Amino acid sequence: MSENYDAIVIGTGQAGPALAVRLGKAGRRTAIIERKLVGGTCVNNGCIPTKTLIASARAAHVARRSADFGVVIDAPIRIDMARVKARKDAIVAQSNAGVTNWLKGTPNVTLIEGHARFDGPQSVRVNDTVLEAQEIFINVGGRANVPDMPGIDDVPYLTNSSMMGVDFLPEHLIVIGGSYIGLEFAQMYRRFGSRVTVVEMAPRLIAREDEEVSSAIKAILEAEGIAIRLNAECLTAARRGNGVAVTLSCEQEPREIVGSHLLLAIGRVPNTHDLGLDKAGIRTDARGFIEVDDQLRTNVPGIWALGDVNGRGAFTHTSYNDYEIVAANLLDGDARRVSDRITTYALFVDPPLGRVGMTEREVRASGKKALVGKLMMARVGRARERSETQGFMQVLVDAESKRILGAALLGTEGDEAVHCILDVMAAGAPYMALQRTMHIHPTVSELIPTLLGDLKPLD
Ligand SMILES: Cc1cc2nc3c(=O)[nH]c(=O)nc-3n(C[C@H](O)[C@H](O)[C@H](O)COP(=O)(O)OP(=O)(O)OC[C@H]3O[C@@H](n4cnc5c(N)ncnc54)[C@H](O)[C@@H]3O)c2cc1C
Question: How does DSSP assign 349-386, residue by residue?
Answer without folding.
Answer: SSS-EEEEE--HHHHHHHT--EEEEEEEGGG-HHHHHT
